[in-house]
Amino acid sequence: MSPRQWQRTGKDMPTLRTHNLLFDHETSAIRIESPYTHGALLIELKQPGSLFVRIPPWVDRREIDIAGNDSALWTNGYLSFSKIGAGKRIRLHFPLKRTETVLAGGLHIHPIRVKMEGDATIAMDNFSADLIFFDPYA
């Protein structure tokens, strides 16, 4: 991930880290493991400080299991953790809910149905195309 992309994903300041997207990523200040590749969102601060984690709107707050810190507070759609020590790992587990949606008609002459798991596409109408990126919608 380029430094410019990281600016949109999160910010590192001397004593504050913010994390906005559910990607695997590592800097000298933070290590993030995605729930899509590791079963839970795992965050390790490499330097002491505070942490703000944006929780997507499709996550039900009541279904979040937090391990590694019991001082989490909700602030404008973010879970905030204060005074985290260097090397401390926080684990956030929440279900990646399966949903279905239809993309707007301007993209194709037919509506395109999409199956999602969390915010990841897992299947999409392909209209019998030969080269497809996602599994066929069934």
Compact overview of the structure:
With 138 residues, this protein is mainly beta. Helices cover 8% and strands 45% of the residues.
Task: Strand order, main sheet: write it out.
Answer: 1-2-6-9-8
The helix content, as a percent range, equals under 10%
CATH topology of the largest domain: Maltose phosphorylase, domain 3
Helix and strand string, N-terminal first?
HEEEEHEEEEEEEEEE
The N- and C-terminal alpha carbons lie at a distance of 33 Å
Regarding quaternary structure, how should these chains be classified? single chain
Describe this protein with a few key phrases:
138 residues, mainly beta, Maltose phosphorylase, domain 3, 2 domains, 14 strands, 45% strand, disordered N terminus
